[in-house]
Amino acid sequence: MNPHVVAIFGGAVSGAEASHQLSQRGVRSVIFEQNALPYGKIEDGLPKWHAKLRDKEEANIDAKLADPHVTFVPFARLGKNINFQDIVNNWGFSAVFLATGAWRDRPLSIEGIDDYVGKGLYYQNPFMHWYNHFHEEGFEGEQKILADGALVIGGGLASIDICKALMMETVQAALAERGIQTSMFDLERGIAKVLETHGLSLADLGLKGCTLVYRRRVKDMPLFPGETDTPEKLAKAEAVREKVLLNAQSKFLFSVLPCHIPVDKIIENGRLAGLVLRETKIEDGRVMEVLGSDRDYRAPLVVSSIGSVSEPLPGVPMKGFAIEVVGGQCCRLKGFENVFAVGNAVTGRGNIKESVEHGKSVSESIAEGYLNNPDGAVTKQFRDKEDQVSFNVSALAERISQLKPPNDEQRKLIFEKVKSMQEAVGFDGSYQAWADAKRPVRLEQLLGLEAHG
User: Fold this and answer.
1) Cβ atoms of 32 and 121 closer than 8 Å
2) CB-based contacts of 105-112 (< 8 A; 24+ apart in sequence)
3) CA-based angle 325:329:332, to the nearest 5?
4) What is the rounded distance in angstroms from the CA atom of residue 11 to the CA atom of residue 6?
5) Residues contacting 1, CB < 8 A, separation 6+
6) Are the CB atoms for 296 and 276 separated by under 8 Å?
7) Do 417 and 410 form a contact (C-beta atoms < 8 A)?
């Protein structure tokens, strides 16, 4: 029996793949998950219209975590009921992996704007969590209040998803006021088609739609990760980016305002009532602000979708927004010999590109047909992440084998502590039964539909 035991924080795509790679090598792992379920952004970040894809990816995680080499601990959060230094120094684990992902929204760089979160401002991660779950009976999260004419600050595929969600919710509500009942799944196939069926337009519904604000040009949007090292490749990439966005706009009827950045807030009656936007221009690939071009853009709602970063964890070294790792040490945390970061918890993509070609979130063919096959784009992201983690863990396996494993007494104490934590939250050790019981009700179930997407 392999004597090593590894602690993994985070059980979603990266954590599950890390545990799977260790299991194949006979190494036991304990997954500490901060939520009831380990699905991460598959559950709380992937828009719920991807129902079939969500179910498929969650089943993929279930299969890995049900392995007898894996022990699952729900509701275990670093800095809350788990002390990082205690785990590293006292529990006796051979190694500790951080697969905690990127859950913290990159803040808008406007002084004092976060005072208006929930008062006209939402950030992407809590917004999408709400969107995916607000239909559930007894949903305990903060309810979001949506409004027509919102500004979405961003520019990537996640920003397009925010625009889609805003447009579908406002259009569905406006149609309902006319006695026309439709579902999110109908609208996700194309708002324009649904309105055409009823002989209506946004203007007929009294709507103007949301606006996506991007700091660069449309052709610069991060919608295509293909090579751009020749003029021909760059031209193709730019054309694909423009096509992806145009297709999204034609289906979901939102507007786009490129070459603008938010520089100030508009406050009325204690709420955010819009933003002051400044024009930009691109010079030698850099964003340059056009001084004197500031203009008020009033909006009842602003959603910031400018990226996710690692959440600071007590005791974990950070460098800017990322977990700090030692260069050339395969994602080893600075100051620790047996603690490693994997997946989105570390910006270590370059560690992989030296040996294998990974890191593209969407392939060229998928990007070109994004709206015809959005699930393919997301699936590619998951597979790339698994490949990244698989490569890292393969490299780490040799390092772990050289570390001191826990002795029999330490192993016994590890699993006694683990069992105590499981029992404290009502988990009896049967992973699949727990996952089936805790999985929330799905919108398609409430509507009496089969899983879409």
Assistant:
1) no
2) 105/304, 105/306, 105/307, 105/308, 105/309, 106/306, 106/307, 106/308, 106/309, 106/321, 107/304, 108/153, 108/262, 108/304, 108/306, 110/262, 110/263, 110/264, 110/265, 110/275, 112/265
3) 45
4) 13
5) 26
6) yes
7) no
Q: What is the pTM of this model?
A: 0.89
Instruction: Write out pLDDT tens, residues 317-369.
Output: 988 888 888 876 568 899 999 999 987 665 433 333 332 333 233 333 434 44
CATH 2.120.10.30 assigned to domain 5-102+310-446? The reply is no
Amino acid at 450: E
- Structural contact between residues 444 and 51, judged by C-beta atoms closer than 8 angstroms: yes
3-class DSSP assignment, residue 196: helix
CB-neighbour burial class of residue 285 (10 A; exposed 0-12, middle 13-18, buried 19+): exposed
Q: Residue ranges per domain, the chain?
A: 5-102+310-446, 105-308
Q: Are 92 and 413 in contact (CB under 8 A)?
A: yes
Per-residue pLDDT reduced to its tens digit, 433-444: 999 999 999 999
For the domain spanning 105-308, the CATH number is 3.50.50.60
* Cα gap 347→366, rounded to integer Å: 24
Note whether 376 and 157 are within 8 A (CB): no
Query: Cβ distance 164 to 252 under 8 Å?
Result: yes
User: How far is C-alpha 58 from the chain's CA centre?
Assistant: 15
- The residue assigned the tokens 């047909």 is 369
Q: What is the CA angle 75-80-85, rounded to 5? A: 110
Higher per-residue confidence, 79 vs 271: 271
- Count other C-beta atoms under 10 Å from residue 80's C-beta: 10
Whole-number Å distance between alpha carbons of 36 and 382: 21
Find how far residue 86's CA is from the centre of its chain: 29
Residue in 339, 448, 301, 363 with CA at minimum distance from that of residue 99: 339
